[in-house]
Amino acid sequence: MRSVVSYVKRGGRMTVGQQRAWNELWPSLGRTVGELPEGPVDFDDWFGRRAPVMVEIGSGMGETTSQLAAAAPELNYVAVEVYDPGLGQLMLRAEKLGVKNLRLMHGDAVVLLTSHVEPGSLSGVRLFFPDPWPKKRHHKRRIVQPEFVSLVASRLAPGGTFHMATDWENYAEQMMEVCSAEPLLRNRHVGEPGGWAPRPEWRPITKFENRADVEGRISHDLIFERV
């Protein structure tokens, strides 16, 4: 399929602490998508245990991701991000929290899901506040497109969830339209007003949500389940 990449490559210098995390922690916690051997990743071997695998696409600076992984020790939590300082900061946050169930992937989540994740193998995929590309002429660059949603759905185990959140109204509507049209998915909250999921108490408030609140935008959660 024509790949809509899951990120915008951003530069940025790393702090001393972030560089230390790359030097000391990355060899055991991280892998680079473009350097993976052919075929699916053996997550059981990488984590050293058999557990449900949760993939979060776009972990940013790791504020939310580190807390979510710490709060769900029963999951093998995989964060996918392209921003080097963000991955460094996530490793520092995880180290501070004593998180043991987190691994990091550096690179494009579309490539990871397409080439290195077995169909029907994930317990969930999370996509919180992806780049909204707010200008109408840029909407085609948004990651939530039919091909991407079909890919995610194919990688979920039956009952597995695709959880999205965005503070841009028309992107939320696009997410709802595209996911509702995917035959492998069903909306867990179809009975709620608009089909939106209630905001989960376990999802920490991000800087994007705080900014959206200040700017008068409402955040929406969507949770779809693999049938």
Automatic annotation (TrEMBL):
<feature type="binding site">
    <location>
        <position position="56"/>
    </location>
    <ligand>
        <name>S-adenosyl-L-methionine</name>
    </ligand>
</feature>
<keyword id="KW-0949">S-adenosyl-L-methionine</keyword>
<feature type="binding site">
    <location>
        <position position="131"/>
    </location>
    <ligand>
        <name>S-adenosyl-L-methionine</name>
    </ligand>
</feature>
<feature type="binding site">
    <location>
        <position position="81"/>
    </location>
    <ligand>
        <name>S-adenosyl-L-methionine</name>
    </ligand>
</feature>
<feature type="binding site">
    <location>
        <begin position="206"/>
        <end position="209"/>
    </location>
    <ligand>
        <name>substrate</name>
    </ligand>
</feature>
<keyword id="KW-0489">Methyltransferase</keyword>
<dbReference type="Pfam" id="PF02390">
    <property type="entry name" value="Methyltransf_4"/>
</dbReference>
<feature type="binding site">
    <location>
        <position position="167"/>
    </location>
    <ligand>
        <name>substrate</name>
    </ligand>
</feature>
<comment type="function">
    <text>Catalyzes the formation of N(7)-methylguanine at position 46 (m7G46) in tRNA.</text>
</comment>
<feature type="binding site">
    <location>
        <position position="108"/>
    </location>
    <ligand>
        <name>S-adenosyl-L-methionine</name>
    </ligand>
</feature>
<dbReference type="InterPro" id="IPR029063">
    <property type="entry name" value="SAM-dependent_MTases_sf"/>
</dbReference>
<comment type="similarity">
    <text>Belongs to the class I-like SAM-binding methyltransferase superfamily. TrmB family.</text>
</comment>
<keyword id="KW-0819">tRNA processing</keyword>
<dbReference type="InterPro" id="IPR055361">
    <property type="entry name" value="tRNA_methyltr_TrmB_bact"/>
</dbReference>
<dbReference type="InterPro" id="IPR003358">
    <property type="entry name" value="tRNA_(Gua-N-7)_MeTrfase_Trmb"/>
</dbReference>
<keyword id="KW-0808">Transferase</keyword>
<dbReference type="GO" id="GO:0008176">
    <property type="term" value="F:tRNA (guanine(46)-N7)-methyltransferase activity"/>
</dbReference>
<comment type="pathway">
    <text>tRNA modification; N(7)-methylguanine-tRNA biosynthesis.</text>
</comment>
<protein>
    <recommendedName>
        <fullName>tRNA (guanine-N(7)-)-methyltransferase</fullName>
        <ecNumber>2.1.1.33</ecNumber>
    </recommendedName>
</protein>
<dbReference type="GO" id="GO:0043527">
    <property type="term" value="C:tRNA methyltransferase complex"/>
</dbReference>
<feature type="binding site">
    <location>
        <position position="135"/>
    </location>
    <ligand>
        <name>substrate</name>
    </ligand>
</feature>
